[in-house]
Amino acid sequence: MVGIMHSLKSEFHELFEKSKSLGDGILKLMDWLNKAQPYYRNSVATIKRWLAEVVGYFERRTTKGIVEGINNKLKLLKRCGLGFRNFNNFKIRALLFWHYPNI
Fold it and tell me: Phi/psi at 102 (nearest 5 deg)?
């Protein structure tokens, strides 16, 4: 069972790397979802719920990872700097934090 789950995981990764078009990606993803249903019930349900967003990757080949990273850095800055007196100080600190993360 673990071997099958590992091969499904590898196939899922390759599906996104090697699909060349929207139609090809959707067909391969639907096939993978049917094969993975018995092993990854929760993951398959989540992918089906977000199917439009997931297949959007095949169209544009972009993710929101960079935006999420920026949001996480800003949240960390907010947690670390509760004493900012005004927004300008926060803005300066955010720019410094972004360009010099070890400050």
Answer: -90, 10
